[in-house]
Structures are given as structure tokens and as C-alpha cells.
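Duplicate of #3305? Posting structure anyway:
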């Protein structure tokens, strides 16, 4: 079992591969306002990615993979999750998710 942080995140585990480290953690998809959703990214994951505070990343959640840039809201680094992504991944605000994240090394597909 992974250690829990005070914020309820499991400890991030880097998995080395040719493109860099894949970081894994779990977190809740949070609703911010009426429709905006995001996943808070633990500081240890940001440090493990070593791409700064707003890197372009590839994210996998619930079997769906997409690219985005990390954002910041009220000082918290977040993975923004659009309505299109929520629909494709079959997720909604309040869901607890296992997340894989890595620096994007290739352009997003068209």
C-alpha cells in the first residue's frame, strides 16, 4: 500500500522510460465553479516531472489519454479536464482517479 499524504494523495512513483519519468498518483476530479474541473497535482509529481510549473504533459486517466498544459488556480497546480475529456473518459467531478502523467515529448495528435 502506498503512503498517504496529508492531502489524501498516494505517494507518486516515477517509472523511468525513454521519454522521461511517468508519475502515478491518485486524486479527486474537483469542480471549480459551475463547470470547470481539474485534478490537483502534488508538488512531488511536479518536481518529478522536472518540467517547470506549466509544462505540456500527456495524461492518462480511466483508460483515456490526452495532452494538456498544467494550469494554476489559487496557487494549486492542476490538470485541467474539459467536458470533452470527461465524456471520453467516462468521469465526472467528485470521482477519485488513478492518474499517470509525463512530460509531452511529441506533438498532440490532430
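Output from current build:
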Amino acid at each position: 500500500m502506498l503512503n498517504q499524504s496529508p492531502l489524501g494523495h498516494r505517494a507518486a512513483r516515477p517509472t523511468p522510460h525513454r521519454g522521461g519519468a511517468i508519475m502515478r498518483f491518485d486524486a479527486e476530479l474537483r469542480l471549480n465553479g459551475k463547470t470547470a474541473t481539474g485534478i490537483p497535482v502534488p508538488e512531488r509529481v511536479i518536481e518529478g516531472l522536472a518540467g517547470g510549473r506549466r509544462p505540456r504533459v500527456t495524461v492518462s486517466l480511466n483508460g483515456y489519454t490526452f495532452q494538456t498544459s498544467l494550469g494554476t488556480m489559487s496557487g494549486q497546480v492542476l490538470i485541467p479536464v474539459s467536458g470533452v475529456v470527461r465524456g471520453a473518459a467516462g468521469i465526472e467531478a467528485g470521482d477519485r482517479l488513478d492518474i499517470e502523467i509525463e512530460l509531452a515529448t511529441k506533438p498532440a495528435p490532430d
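Confirmed duplicate; merging threads. Confidence is low (pLDDT under 50) at residues 1-11, 13-18. The chain has two helices and nine strands.
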